[in-house]
Amino acid sequence: xxxxxxxxxxxxxxxxxxxxxxxTKLDAGDTFTVKSDxxxxxxxxxxxxxxxxxxxxxSGDLSGSVTIPPTVTYNxxxxxxxxxxxxxxxxxxxxTSVNLPNTITIIGASAFFDCSSLETINTPQPLSExxxxxxxxxxxxxxxxxxxxxxxxxxxxxxxxxxxxSVKFSxxxxxxxxxxxxxxxxxxxxxxxxxxxxxxxxxxxxxVKVKEIYLxxxxxxxxxxxxxxxxxxxxxxxxxxxxxxxxxxxxxGIRPDITITVMMxxxxxYSKTAxxxxxxxxxxxx
Length: 286
Known about the structure:
By secondary structure, this protein is mainly β. It has helices at residues 2-22, 267-272, and strands at 31-36, 39-47, 52-56, 63-67, 71-74, 77-84, 94-99, 106-107, 120-121, 129-130, 143-145, 152-153, 166-168, 175-176, 189-192, 198-199, 212-215, 221-222, 235-238, 259-263, 281-285. Strands 1, 2, 3, 5, 6, 8, 10 and 12 form an eight-stranded mixed sheet that branches. It has a five-stranded parallel sheet with strand order 15-17-19-20-21.
């Protein structure tokens, strides 16, 4: 009887230890894999106490439509997917669409780099940041909406998205970074909201089909080559009272006789300011 009691006690202790170990909470930096809709995703814990995780690089043989789950369960713990990590889907050339959950706040650097067949991706409401070169070379992506919550864009985030025809900027963006839309050959118009203070170097360089540029009243500086190579531009509006600082090659390749609409009280100032005096056809507005 005594042996039986000791054995049962020992067995209970072992089973309890195994169960406890199976429910051990992961620490920040720990990784795990979970299969969702037939796809094995790998995750990294980023905030342990909140059970926040990000998707980290997955297999490059994914194809078709990919849906990221809002939550995943591992070892009895539920984790919230809040980020698409750096290089997560880099080189997944056969992905055609991505459905992001409304838990995503950040798309990391090069997350969808060279996903050349990607045509559509939604922008969840909490999304606030898109990293450097996040969509570089997504040559099938046609439309992207930078919704109100997005306030940070990374360098070259949409560089060489050659099919991109339309971009809607949010009212939270204050800077369009270097090379953000360089080589977006299909982009037809550029409309920067009043919140934008700076347009970076080569931001819209070689956007050869752009016909109209609209810069609202807050732009303070426009970088080197920002609109270089935009040879199809027919008109530009710049409502900043003081001509934004720019360089000799900011507008390189744009015809000097296009119509430039500025505030009536600023027209003379623009026509006499370095690099803005390259243009000859100013039109005042109120």
